[in-house]
Amino acid sequence: MEVENTVIKNSMKAWVLAARPKTLAGAAVPIMVGVALAFVDSRMYSINAFSVNAAILCLLFAFIMQIDANFINDFFDYVNGNDDNTRLGPRRACAQGWISVNAMKKGIALTTTIACAVGLPLVLYGGLEMVLIGLICIVFCFLYTTHLSYLGMGDVLVLVFFGIIPVCISYYIQLHTVTLECFIISLACGLVIDTLLIVNNFRDIQNDMKVGKKTIAVTFGAKPTLYLYLIIGFIACGLCFIFFKSGRIWAAILPLVYLAFHFFTFRRMAYIKKGKALNIILGMTARNIFIFGLMVTLGILLK
């Protein structure tokens, strides 16, 4: 029996499906990398200020904001009529009737409030500037789905909010500085996580053209987008070579494991080319993202 026929409206199962657990890898990876780098550097420079509590709060905030973003995307795509029977991607909670519109509004309000409550204590570790960072994350969480994704800014926002901000801020909270190495690896994380958006845009190119949504795939076409998926994986691994400068050999080499999975996924994506079958590439890409994060994190800790 198909899943939509077994989901009770507004049930716990419905909310779990709406939260899209598979997307949490994208939230976890940059925090893992930033925290690991801060932990090792705090030992290297004999700074005994590393806080496990702060690291946990960063991870929780990232998870909750990812769920909040998923709820917001689900709600606004539905009310704007973007989630109809022509949708090729995974089914969405509001469109399928798993969660009512009013319940989703309350869910968004609740997750946003919880994110604020979890993030606020980070002020004790990173200073009042953490309030500004938190507000920026929340505001752009809404702006992405409602406006910016239609203006071709999705990939830039992924680079910023799934790369630069989470990696650098989770590092800054611990050491109150950001190194060049930290910034470069934040770019690598953002690029790897952007591959997930590229798959979505590659699959949805026809539907996005119909609704006037400007994406890289719409602007440049399917074939360049396909090869962009491959290339940015190589660029991300190339950026990891920054670790050679500080003697973190494993952190530079281990991400090449990710590259093997990434290339295989690219070949599968090129073979499928279009349609709902590309949804399997989403799962494979999410797995690859986690592998990248794990390899970089292990490489840093092995120093």
Can you name the CATH architecture?
Orthogonal Bundle
Kindly report how far apart the N and C termini lie.
50 Å
- Basic shape: globular
Would you tell me which CATH topology applies?
Farnesyl Diphosphate Synthase
Which strand-content bin applies to the residues?
A: under 5%
Determine and state the CATH class. Answer: Mainly Alpha
Explained architecture:
The chain has 303 residues and is mainly α. It has one domain: Farnesyl Diphosphate Synthase, CATH 1.10.600. The chain contains 15 helices and no strands. It has helices at 12-19, 24-44, 52-79, 93-96, 101-119, 123-126, 129-146, 154-175, 180-203, 205-210, 216-220, 222-239, 249-253, 255-272, 279-301. Helix 2 (24-44) runs antiparallel to helix 3, helix 2 (24-44) packs antiparallel against helix 9 (180-203) and helix 7 (129-146) packs antiparallel against helix 8. It is globular and about 55 Å long. The N and C termini lie far apart (50 Å). The mean pLDDT is 90.
Topology:
Elements: H1 12-19, H2 24-44, H3 52-79, H4 93-96, H5 101-119, H6 123-126, H7 129-146, H8 154-175, H9 180-203, H10 205-210, H11 216-220, H12 222-239, H13 249-253, H14 255-272, H15 279-301
Helix pairs in contact: 2-3, 2-8, 2-9, 2-15, 3-5, 3-7, 3-8, 7-8, 8-9, 9-12, 9-15, 12-14, 14-15
Q: Can you tag this structure with a few keywords?
A:
single chain; globular; 15 helices; Farnesyl Diphosphate Synthase; 303 residues; mainly alpha
Quick recap of the structure?
By secondary structure, the protein is an all-alpha fold. Helix content is 74%, strand content 0%. It has 15 helices and no strands.
